[in-house]
């Protein structure tokens, strides 16, 4: 059983690559963003701690107002660090629980984690893959996915590590620009990982 960590900026296409790897290797994807989204609702300890730090204004209909939270953290590095610290505390623990449940059933566990290195989850990975993409592609994907304007998308990208960070720290890099090229690269990479 291998653990593969997939990381990259918002809008780079991590989910697309994660799904491709999953389909090729009897794998399961553990998606950090989905876990955080699911945990940030109702009366979870995660949501309570976020409200204690950032105030109850960021809660709407008994769940985290992700747009309000994004406006706070992508404008202020210190606030982002506070949110990351809370998220790591709860989400990393949940990811590790899910790995333990999945490791007997799958040949490959794929961790789709934007902050793979910052959360230190890279330390439990056998391999890490950095997904990079053209800035314009990332901007378009973020705007469409999150229904935000171009300026806010650029702000998010600027608050994250550069492509060089992933190039320097990951075992493999996939440039998410051409879907056919990506399929070839994923196949080549998985042959090396066996």
What would your notes on this structure say?
The structure is a single chain. Helix 1 crosses helix 9 (179-193) and helix 2 (32-39) crosses helix 5. The longest helix has 26 residues, at 77-102. This protein has a single domain (2-193), classed as P-loop containing nucleotide triphosphate hydrolases (Rossmann fold, 3-Layer(aba) Sandwich). The model has no long low-confidence stretch (mean pLDDT 93). The strands form 2 sheets. A 5-stranded parallel sheet has the order 2-5-1-6-7, with helices on both faces. The chain has helices at 14-24, 32-39, 45-54, 66-73, 77-102, 135-146, 150-158, 163-169, 179-193; strands at residues 2-8, 27-31, 59-60, 63-64, 108-112, 127-132, 172-175. With 194 residues, it is an alpha/beta fold. It is built from 9 helices and 7 strands.
Q: Note the run of SSEs as H and E.
A: EHEHHEEHHEEHHHEH
**Helix percentage:** 40-55%
Under the CATH scheme, which architecture would be assigned? Answer: 3-Layer(aba) Sandwich
Shape: globular
The tally of domains stands at: 1
**Strand content bin:** 15-25%
CATH superfamily: P-loop containing nucleotide triphosphate hydrolases
Main pleated sheet? 5 strands, parallel
Q: Which structural class is indicated by helix and strand composition? A: alpha/beta
Total number of helices: 9
Distance between the termini: 10 Å
Number of strands: 7
Give the CATH topology.
Answer: Rossmann fold
């Amino acid at each position: 059983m291998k653990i593969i960590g997939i990381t990259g900026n918002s809008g780079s296409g991590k989910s697309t690559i994660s799904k491709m790897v999953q389909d090729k290797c009897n794998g399961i994807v553990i998606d950090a963003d989905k876990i955080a989204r699911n945990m940030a609702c109702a009366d979870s300890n995660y949501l309570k701690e976020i409200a204690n730090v950032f105030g109850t204004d960021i809660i709407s209909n008994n769940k985290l107002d992700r747009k309000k939270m994004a406006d706070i953290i992508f404008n202020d590095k210190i606030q982002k660090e506070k949110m990351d610290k809370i998220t790591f505390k709860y989400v990393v623990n949940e990811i590790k629980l899910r790995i333990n449940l999945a490791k007997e059933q799958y040949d490959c566990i794929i961790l789709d984690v934007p902050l793979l290195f910052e959360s230190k989850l890279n330390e439990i990975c056998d391999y890490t893959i950095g997904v990079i993409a053209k800035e314009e592609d990332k901007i378009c994907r973020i705007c469409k996915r999150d229904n935000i304007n171009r300026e806010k998308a650029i702000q998010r990208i600027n608050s994250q590590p550069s492509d060089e960070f992933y190039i320097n720290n990951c075992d493999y890099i996939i440039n998410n620009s051409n879907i056919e090229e990506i399929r070839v690269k994923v196949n080549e990479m998985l042959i090396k990982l066996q």
